[in-house]
Design a protein that fits this description.
about 230 residues; about 40% helix; 2 domains; metallopeptidase activity
Length: about 230
């Protein structure tokens, strides 16, 4: 059977023409990716190549799984070379920055929802837990953001001492802990609860209160303050 090229397809099946006529919203995930790739590979149209990329084994299916593919992993896909690997990595990074930019508009970090919205794209695709410290001044403005630990909470050396040394160094008035659950489920583990209690009690003694501990999942979050564990 002869291979059909993109030029041989009717206009309503070509992603460029569909986008021009009806807008990008009508394109499938594969068609959107095909527009970015511009060309296919030997024996494949750009749409067929895009489908191959989206179906390639990865931690998460579909478009979101592209966040987890390195350039070398992308190059393992038939038809993807260094140029296309860079194109894919750049589009995933651009999407992350757009989402973060939208979340930052008018964001004053006055609620757990606002903080979760701002950091969600940075954290929800990570494959390891990362404990992040946010330090604030008297006006509620962010003074510092720092990674305290990488790894699961029960395996990492997350100590109140390290947290409050950082808070004291930037003259913080209060702090908020933030960390992610790679599973996508933000419900706290017993280790999360123990860490929160230890930091909360230490903050009382040092008069630098822990205002919240927010756990980020996949587009979901858990706030210890909202749930009444921190008062």
């Amino acid at each position: 059977m002869n291979h059909i090229t993109m030029k041989q397809l009717p206009d309503d099946e070509r992603p460029y023409e569909k986008c021009l006529k009806c807008g990008a919203g009508v394109l499938s995930d594969a068609e959107l990716l095909a527009v970015i790739l511009r060309t296919g590979a030997k024996g494949m149209t750009s749409v067929e190549l895009a489908r191959e990329i989206l179906s390639f084994p990865k931690p998460q299916p579909g478009l979101s799984g592209l966040y987890h593919l390195s350039a070398s992993a992308l190059c393992d896909i038939k038809g993807v070379g260094k140029v296309k690997a860079v194109q894919i990595q750049c589009i995933t990074e651009l999407s992350r920055r757009i989402a973060k930019s939208v979340a930052s508009e008018g964001n004053t970090f006055t609620s757990a929802q606002a903080i979760a919205d701002y950091y969600m794209e940075d954290f929800r695709h990570l494959q390891q837990e990362r404990v992040f410290l946010l330090s604030f001044d008297t006006k509620g403005e962010l003074l510092s953001e720092k990674t305290i630990s990488v790894g699961t909470v029960n395996q990492s050396c997350v100590s109140p001492r390290e947290i409050f040394l950082e808070a004291l160094s930037c003259r913080a008035v209060y702090v908020i802990l933030l960390h992610n659950h790679p599973s996508g489920n933000p419900q706290p583990s017993p280790e999360d609860r123990l860490l929160t209690m230890r930091v909360h009690e230490s903050g009382k003694l040092l008069e630098i209160p822990l205002m919240d501990h927010i756990i980020l999942g996949d587009r979901r979050y858990f706030s210890f303050r909202e749930e009444g564990f921190i008062k």
